[in-house]
Each structure stands twice: as structure tokens, then as C-alpha cells.
């Protein structure tokens, strides 16, 4: 697990079903981790992703139409129009937060001047088959574009 830092170290990690996850593998198909915060269609959108291409495991968090504030908790729930959500691909199965299976992201540092975003997250997500995956102890410290 990466340390809890706030200096743009380029780290992201969590526990997926109790097992450590961190991005890695070849970047030929694109970066293994990234964060963005952009103004699109009348609102700010945030995205955070990590991909371990060797194990075909990934996590993604999306916040829509939100201006990030430090030390504020944002709910992760349903991926509809203006709502925030978390998702994961684990063991070739896609999981996504819902009205019942939710989570949270907390921004411990948001430095718009230097483009650094840091914080913690957790969420539960559901597959189409009714299986639940638990994402815990998530942390990130990244530069965003």
C-alpha cells in the first residue's frame, strides 16, 4: 500500500477483497494510473483510475459536476447523469456502485495551483450476477491534468 502523502508522488492503491492492489504492467495501451479534473459542459469533472495490466484488475472513480473541496467527503453511488460512482474490474468481472452498494472519497489535499490531488476512498460494488466486491483503504496522491 502506498503511504498517505500529499505531494503529488504519483501513487494509488487499495485493498480489493482484502488483497493489495496497485497499478502496474505495460503502458503500451495507455497509462496504468491517472487523475483528471477538467471543466466540461458547464461543470467540473474528476476522474481517478488505476490499472494493473498483469492481473487484469482496475479501479475507477468518477465525480461529475463537482468543484472539489479539501476535507470534504463525496458519496459514490449510482453512475447516472450527474451522480458520482466507483467501479472495478476484478477477476474478469465488472463491478459498479449502486443505490445500495456505495462508498466515499475524501480529498485531503487539492492543490489547483500545482495540479496535485490526494485523498482516501472506499466503496462496495455489485456485479450483474449479484456478487459484491469490497474496495478498502484506498489512497492516492497524484498530479492531475
Quick rundown:
This protein has strands at 11-16, 19-21, 33-40, 43-52, 57-63, 73-76, 85-90, 93-96, 103-111, 116-126, 132-143. With 145 residues, it is mainly β.
Care to describe what's here?
This protein starts with 10 loop residues before the first strand and ends with a strand. It is mainly β and about 140 residues long. The mean pLDDT is about 95. Helix content is about 0%, strand content about 55%. The chain has one domain (about 10-145). It has strands spanning about 10-15, 20, 35-40, 45-50, 55-65, 75, 85-90, 95, 105-110, 115-125, 130-145. The chain has a 6-stranded antiparallel beta sheet with strand order 2-1-11-10-9-6, with no helix packed on it. The chain has a 5-stranded antiparallel beta sheet with strand order 3-4-5-7-8, with no helix packed on it. It is built from no helices and 11 strands.
Strand and helix layout:
Layout: E1 11-16, E2 19-21, E3 33-40, E4 43-52, E5 57-63, E6 73-76, E7 85-90, E8 93-96, E9 103-111, E10 116-126, E11 132-143
Antiparallel strand pairs: 1-2, 1-11, 3-4, 4-5, 5-7, 6-9, 7-8, 9-10, 10-11
Amino acid at each position: 500500500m502506498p503511504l498517505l502523502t500529499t505531494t503529488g508522488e504519483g501513487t494509488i492503491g487499495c485493498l480489493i477483497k482484502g488483497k493489495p492492489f496497485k497499478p502496474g504492467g505495460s503502458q503500451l495501451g495507455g497509462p496504468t494510473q491517472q487523475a483528471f479534473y477538467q471543466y466540461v459542459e458547464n461543470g467540473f469533472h474528476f476522474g481517478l483510475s488505476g490499472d494493473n495490466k498483469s492481473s487484469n484488475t482496475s479501479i475507477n472513480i468518477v465525480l461529475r459536476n463537482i468543484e472539489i473541496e479539501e476535507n470534504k467527503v463525496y458519496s459514490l453511488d449510482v453512475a447516472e447523469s450527474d451522480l458520482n460512482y466507483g467501479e472495478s474490474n476484478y477477476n474478469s468481472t465488472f463491478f459498479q456502485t449502486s443505490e445500495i452498494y456505495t462508498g466515499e472519497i475524501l480529498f485531503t489535499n487539492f492543490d489547483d495551483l500545482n495540479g496535485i490531488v490526494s485523498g482516501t476512498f472506499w466503496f462496495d460494488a455489485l456485479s450483474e450476477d449479484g456478487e459484491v466486491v469490497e474496495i478498502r483503504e484506498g489512497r492516492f496522491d497524484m498530479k492531475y491534468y
